[in-house]
């Protein structure tokens, strides 16, 4: 799992820097990375039963889902940013970011599941 975590965290860093160069706001970058991670998780779980070697290896599922995708997503940053907004009494903004992130993350997951089933 730790190799997956290293790969996921490095990919997140590269994506973050690329999106930062086109001057996207931090909130939007985190949202996009988390939606992409949710999509990959849905896609992975939908195609996992079709990968013959993966069904025999529980460790592969852990490597990719928890290690790679867990490190690729920025859940801790998302929570910290919500906390910061909340402590600054920016309740509307924190609530909007929370709802949008949750909704779009679920949509990304479902889209990945549906795409993998085709």
Describe it:
The protein is mainly alpha-helical and 118 residues long. Helix content is 86%, strand content 0%. The chain contains 6 helices and no strands. It has helices spanning 2-21, 26-47, 52-55, 58-72, 75-87, 91-117. Helix 1 packs across helix 2 (26-47), helix 2 packs antiparallel against helix 4 (58-72) and helix 2 (26-47) runs antiparallel to helix 5. The model has no long low-confidence stretch (mean pLDDT 88).
Oligomer: single chain
Order of helices and strands: HHHHHH
Our count of helices gives 6
Q: Structural class, judged by helices and strands?
A: mainly alpha
Helix content: over 70%
How much of the residues is beta strand, in percent? under 5%
Low-confidence segments, ≥5 residues, pLDDT <50?
Answer: none
**What is the CA-atom radius of gyration, in angstroms?**
16 Å
The largest sheet is: none
N-to-C span = 28 Å
Number of strands: 0
Q: What's the average pLDDT?
A: 88
Rough shape?
globular
What labels would you give this structure?
118 residues; mainly alpha; 86% helix; globular
Concise account of the structure shown:
By secondary structure, the chain is mostly helical.
Itemize the secondary structure elements and their pairings:
Layout: H1 2-21, H2 26-47, H3 52-55, H4 58-72, H5 75-87, H6 91-117
């Amino acid at each position: 799992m730790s190799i997956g975590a290293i790969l996921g965290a490095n990919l997140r860093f590269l994506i973050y820097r690329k999106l930062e160069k086109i001057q996207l706001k931090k909130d939007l970058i985190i949202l996009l990375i988390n939606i992409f991670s949710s999509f990959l998780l849905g896609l992975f779980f939908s195609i996992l039963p079709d990968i013959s070697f993966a069904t025999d290896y529980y460790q592969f599922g852990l490597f990719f889902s928890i290690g790679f995708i867990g490190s690729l997503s920025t859940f801790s940053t998302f929570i910290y940013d919500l906390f910061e907004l909340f402590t600054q009494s920016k309740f509307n903004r924190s609530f909007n970011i929370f709802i949008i992130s949750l909704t779009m993350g679920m949509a990304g997951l479902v889209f990945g599941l549906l795409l993998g089933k085709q």
